[in-house]
């Protein structure tokens, strides 16, 4: 007579590849059982997470008992956790999403998963069973925000409920894929005090930037990929007075605004019939009809640059956006190039005059060799002289202070001693910039945002 123990002994002698196939088949059966038993309950917002997890675990125990699988206690526990994560979360990467030390998750196919911690990339022991398992998690993520991704539409940008940014690349574009990249955002948004403690800003420059935002200057946050532009944009946006009407425009919603009067809009890709697309440019134009006090664009990356410049030049002062670039000067070149993409055949000088008139301040963020993210330039955009837009650096990162024993840069932002030309403009609005803000000697410590 064959007992459960005997079946378990026989199963343990099975080759690893066959055992994995059996476990995967069992995993799929249990997954389908829970879905069929609980159905709409899984998406009922009225049920607490603890109660939902309890019900899922009960159904998983039932499914495992019905199958009568001869597996070890360790395999049983791992199977229950894996299926619960698949049903309630995001499978193998669920624990990485919950890890506060992880800032980015990079899935380079089912068997290779990397993360970024403290600015450094490291490999993990996380694995998906196969490509089908990874595709199932990807489909779950993108469907939550009404997006789709398949072989006919293999590129997709999406977001998680907490605002974390998601990018997906499938076959045939992704060799050895699918590729899944998730840039996490803190559940509790960073505040200006956090950036000062991280060394991203100094208290001196934080105080200065708060005055600029409250004084309705047009600000561009620039930097390379992964330098923290969106995080800094969130912090700058927090300085906007709560009594103003703010319209935010993004590809995928990431901004975590603290004000009450905020209208958030998100672009939309074309449907399967290549219809219904709504571009960032369409949203910027529409925002002008919504009586905004401020327009905040998550990122300008195309023809919408010319509409953003026009908005800044037609009474919508205090607008903020981000641009991918390598330096403040490069930021202007990028905006110029993107404006030409609008197809309006504007002369270069006309575009530069628009930029010189619209833009007031460029805040450039860099990711240094030690993995830290620092504001390296705060630069004023002044005026046209001939064919060139004149700029002047108000604050610069001091690389000359060297590095410590751990390879971390010791430098910080320092004033160049130059007072910006918009000082009087802010003064007319009752915002006074004290002379010591621009002193080359260290700024007397004060809490940014204390006013």
Question: How does the SSE layout of this entry go?
Answer:
Elements: H1 4-12, H2 16-38, H3 49-67, H4 73-88, H5 94-98, E1 102-108, E2 113-117, E3 120-123, H6 131-143, E4 155-159, E5 165-169, E6 179-183, H7 192-198, H8 203-214, E7 219-223, H9 229-237, E8 246-250, E9 262-266, H10 280-287, E10 294-297, H11 304-312, E11 320-324, H12 328-340, H13 348-358, E12 361-367, E13 373-385, E14 388-397, E15 413-415, H14 423-428
Q: Could you characterize what this model shows?
A:
Residues about 445-450 have low confidence and may be disordered. The chain has helices at about 5-10, 15-40, 50-65, 75-90, 95-100, 130-145, 190-200, 205-215, 230-235, 280-285, 305-310, 330-340, 350-360, 425-430, and strands at about 100-110, 115, 120-125, 155-160, 165-170, 180-185, 220-225, 245-250, 260-265, 295, 320-325, 360-365, 375-385, 390-395, 415. About 35% of the residues lie in helices and about 20% in strands. It is α/β, with parallel strands linked by helices and about 450 residues long. The protein folds into 3 domains: about 5-90, no CATH class; about 95-185, Beta-Lactamase, CATH 3.30.450.90; about 190-440, Rossmann fold (3-Layer(aba) Sandwich). It contains 14 helices and 15 strands.
* Number of DSSP E strands: 15
Radius of gyration: 26 Å
The CATH superfamily of the largest domain is P-loop containing nucleotide triphosphate hydrolases
Runs in which pLDDT lies below 50 for 5 or more consecutive residues are 443-451
Q: Number of helical segments?
A: 14
Count of domains:
3
The strand line-up of the biggest sheet is: 9-8-10-11-7-12-13-14-15
What's the average pLDDT?
A: 84
Quote the beta fraction.
Answer: 15-25%
Q: H/E element string?
A: HHHHHEEEHEEEHHEHEEHEHEHHEEEEH
CATH architecture of the largest domain: 3-Layer(aba) Sandwich
Looking at CATH, which topology of the largest domain would you report? Rossmann fold
Considering DSSP H and I runs of 4 or more, what fraction of the residues is helical? 25-40%
Shape summary: elongated
Q: What gap, in angstroms, lies between the N and C termini?
A: 82 Å
Question: Which CATH top level class of the largest domain fits?
Answer: Alpha Beta
Structural class: alpha/beta
Biggest sheet architecture = 9 strands, mixed
């Amino acid at each position: 007579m064959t007992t459960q123990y005997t079946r378990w002994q026989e199963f343990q002698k099975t080759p690893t590849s066959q055992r994995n196939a059996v476990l995967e088949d069992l995993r799929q059966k249990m997954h389908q059982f829970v879905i069929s038993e609980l159905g709409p309950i899984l998406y009922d917002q009225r049920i607490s997470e603890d109660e939902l997890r309890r019900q899922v675990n009960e159904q998983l125990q039932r499914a495992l008992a019905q199958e009568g699988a001869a597996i070890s206690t360790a395999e049983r526990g791992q199977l229950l956790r894996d299926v619960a994560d698949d049903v309630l979360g995001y499978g193998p990467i669920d624990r990485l999403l919950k890890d506060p030390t992880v800032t980015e998750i990079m899935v380079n196919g089912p068997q290779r998963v990397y993360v970024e911690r403290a600015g450094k990339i490291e490999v993990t022991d996380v694995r998906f069973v196969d490509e089908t398992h990874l595709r199932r998690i990807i489909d779950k993520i993108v469907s939550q925000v009404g997006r789709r991704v398949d072989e006919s539409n293999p590129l997709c940008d999406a977001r998680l409920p907490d605002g974390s940014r998601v990018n997906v690349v499938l076959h045939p574009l992704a060799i050895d894929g699918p590729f899944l990249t998730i840039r996490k955002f803190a559940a509790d948004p960073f505040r200006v005090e956090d950036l000062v403690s991280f060394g991203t800003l100094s208290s001196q420059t934080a105080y200065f930037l708060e005055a600029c935002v409250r004084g309705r200057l047009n600000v561009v946050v620039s930097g390379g990929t992964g330098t923290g532009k969106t995080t800094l944009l969130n912090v700058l946006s927090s300085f906007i007075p709560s009594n103003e009407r703010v319209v935010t425009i993004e590809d995928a919603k990431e901004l975590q605004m603290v004000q009450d009067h905020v209208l958030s809009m998100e672009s939309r890709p074309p449907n399967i019939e290549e219809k219904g697309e709504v571009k960032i440019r369409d949203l910027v134009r529409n925002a002008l009809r919504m009586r905004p006090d401020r327009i905040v664009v998550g990122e300008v990356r195309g023809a919408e640059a010319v509409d953003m410049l026009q908005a800044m030049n037609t009474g919508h002062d205090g607008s903020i956006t981000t641009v991918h670039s390598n330096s403040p000067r490069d930021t202007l070149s990028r905006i110029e190039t993107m404006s030409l993409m609008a197809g309006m055949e504007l002369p270069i000088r006309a575009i530069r005059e628009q930029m010189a008139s619209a833009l007031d301040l460029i805040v450039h963020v860099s990711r240094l060799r030690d993995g830290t993210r620092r504001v390296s330039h705060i630069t004023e955009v002044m005026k046209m002289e001939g064919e060139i837009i004149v700029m002047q650096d108000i604050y610069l990162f001091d690389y000359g202070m060297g590095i410590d024993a751990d390879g971390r840069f010791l430098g910080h932002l320092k004033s160049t001693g130059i007072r910006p030309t918009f000082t009087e403009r802010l003064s007319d609005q009752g915002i006074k910039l004290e002379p010591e803000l621009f002193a080359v000697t260290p700024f007397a410590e004060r809490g940014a945002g204390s006013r």
